[in-house]
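Task 17 of the worksheet. Students: predict the tertiary structure of the chain below and write it out as structure tokens. Keep your answer in the requested format; marks are given for formatting as well as content.
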Amino acid sequence: MRRPTARLRTAVAAGLIALGAALLSPLAPAVAVTPADDPIPLPIADYCGGQCSDILPPGQNGNATLTQILLHKAFGTMPAHASDQLARYDSLVAGYPGLTDAKVNDFFNNASFGVPADQVESTTSPRPDVTITRDKKTGVPHIKGTTRYGTSFGAGYAAAQDRLWQMDLFRHVGRGDLTPFAGGALANQGLEQQFWPQAPYTEADLQAQVDRIRTTEGERGRLAMEDAQAYVDGINLYRTQSKNGRYFPGEYVLTGHIDSITNAGEIKPFKITDLIALASVVGGLFGGGGGGEVQAALSLLAAQQRYGLEEGTRVWESFRQRNDPEAVLTVHDGTSFPYAQKPANPQGTALPDAGTVVAEQLVYDRSGAATAPGAADPPKPVKQSMSNALLVSGAHTAGGHPVAVFGPQTGYLAPQLLMLQELQGPGISARGASFAGVSMYVQLGRGQDYAWSATSAGQDITDTFAVELCEPGGQAPTTASTHYLYRGTCTPMEKLERTNTWKKSVADPTPDGSYRMQVWRTHYGIVTHRATVAGKPVAYAALRSTYRHEADSIIGFQMLNDPSYVKDARTFQQAAEHIGYAFNWFYADAREAAYYNSGSNPVRASGVDASLPVHARQQYEWQGFDPAANTAAYTPPAEHPQSIGQDYYISWNNKQAKDYGAAGFGMGAVHRGDLLDRRVKALVAAGGVTRAKLTGAMAEAAVTDLRAENLLPELLAVLRSAPVTDPAVSAAIDKLAAWQASGTQRKETAQGSRTYAHADAVRIMDAWWPLLIEAEFKPGLGVPLYDALRASLTVDEAPNAGHGPTGSHAGSAFQYGWWSYADEDLRMVLGRPVVDPPSQVHCGGGSLPACREVVAATLKQAASATPAAVYPADGTCAAGNQWCADSIVQRPVGGLAHPQINWQNRPTYQQVTEFAAHR
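Model answer:
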């Protein structure tokens, strides 16, 4: 740790003296605390036999008082359990080659139920009917209630102990008013501009969703809202106690909400509607799917303009890859689950007239800091697809029981969006991870004799409708009109807006500013673009099937936590059926592994092409569509991809099953799911799979460069198709070949060296890929089509690129890119088989010698690129620092910062499980 300067020490000391005893506040709540040596009995119903493990960096404790924040800034100290899982998570990069089952918990937590008596750190009883026990090693809360109300109350209380500031922050993100709460930093502006337009609601809308669950979901709906109210009550007790006791998170002082001397100010009470706002953020980020139809239409039009109507459509379809037969599948036994396929005779498609599409403006009336140059940039689209899963059936494991290694990639925040907990109470028995602020149930974790997890599925549950514009007085409409035809009636759009004003603070010195966000809501969704279709003005509106249903999935999570409901793989699938968001759900117990794809998949009218905009006319609406509550007919559970007892399952946001239409571009012959499938398939073939072996397969995939493993063999074949005479190209080939032979990993030479083995080869690949793709495809496609396709699917997503929910340094990589396009194109040039050949061959116009010239020229250019050019400086790294450019940063959403760690393309929260017995 770097020592602070004398000036800094003096300033901090003076600040602490000035704040006085008011800041030297207790660091624990003033409630009943049992001595740490008081024995806590272990629960009886734990069938994992010590073989369940989990990890969630950086640490459990996400709250820090002002004193703790100041001490951290001055001396680098951390509150207990704020960062104690980070080093173990990081060390798996170096430790996985020698991993054994006995060493798994060197890198993970023991996820058994309960806390042994000698490992109890503290117990807290905020009410007589609940006890919160925290363990010494991680500080995870083990919540045990004698009543259901007490259990849910304890969950809320523990969540506030660990994440009060973060929960407050994200309820404001969901409501679109983050900047008035936390400050006008560009990142804050970007967050509220990303999320609010996806789920803009009035307070009445939020309450209506609560009421709907309570009144239309039967006994479980009523119980869910009672649990939610108890959870909110627990949050509010801690909120009040910590405020009065002055041990609340210090960010409230730093952002000006509470006076550090007088304690004047307020932490506003939480309400059930806050949970809906929070759920909209989580669901929008990880559980959505589809959309993007307007951009898809633009690339289709560009293709038709380049090649003509028929050939242009064929070219576009080859890039769209709706149902690529070579795509890696989760259900790989050949079972077909048709959904969102290309119709034989499309009906109702509403392609825009060329050159007329204009994106809908979101931000108006900027003032102050909101007029700064960077503030005008539109936020990047949110990418939902993350998380991975590896499961092997008991027939292929050493212990004869299914083994699972799975978890969500939720980015890296400090503290994390997720938090660990154990819940034991009437009708609830689970341990695992939950999103802070909606953690009345465990959302991903383990029960008494089973474990479950999810990956983002991304199937198409969002459609774009072209609403025909009109004027109420009968005048000719324009693209600026704010009325539209709904079933023949000229209907006003509903304006939803937020006016946000912020002031600078200690936490955020961004100068004062303000702006107004505005969206138009129609019965067919939120307006995203305006254009003309066949000369008529239209507004394109995006409608997500889970809009107005942000928390309906609570029923499914309630079931997953209920040991009387989930008893086997089939009942697990039945629970997952109640989750409306688009997720792939995985399950393992002592007998079976299983899979189910959840989501409110709308039943579309016959002939509607889900990949493109459709006219907003009654005959093209979702079947059974009722705009009042956004309900429709949904595909029955039997039509969702699912499986029980397959030899193995992998998922890395890849295609689910045969004929299950891909919602976006990029589901082709090369996908990062291949990194898992190839390794797990080999383990299954060899037999005797263990927790350590399956964890090792995940960990190796997590540090492997997809481009190098899958595409480099073809690129080298092209280059070596004739003698290599250029010394620079020859030297680059030698470096790349050596890297390939060693496994194409992006990994340190030794633990802590912060220097990659094969660093030159890694640098060359990072510089080469974007140059190669442009030179390979742009000449044939032409600039307009190339750019239009890039708008639908980015060319590259290397670890050092800026992407993911937390921006760059976010870990997740190689999900989005032109890997499949290049793979199929190069195979065509090399004369190798392609199951569904593309309409056009692009590299060198299909000539191997010409393609070789393209590949060699771009390789030579990449090899000459300096590290500083390939890895430019950012706010974290100096120019040219390759390891740092890849590294993972825990993005602070509060006052604590954490060390960088090695790049890993790996779940943020992760479980390793093998149940030895079953009820």
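Marker's comment: Confidence is low (pLDDT under 50) at residues 1-42. Residues 148-175 form the longest helix (28 residues).
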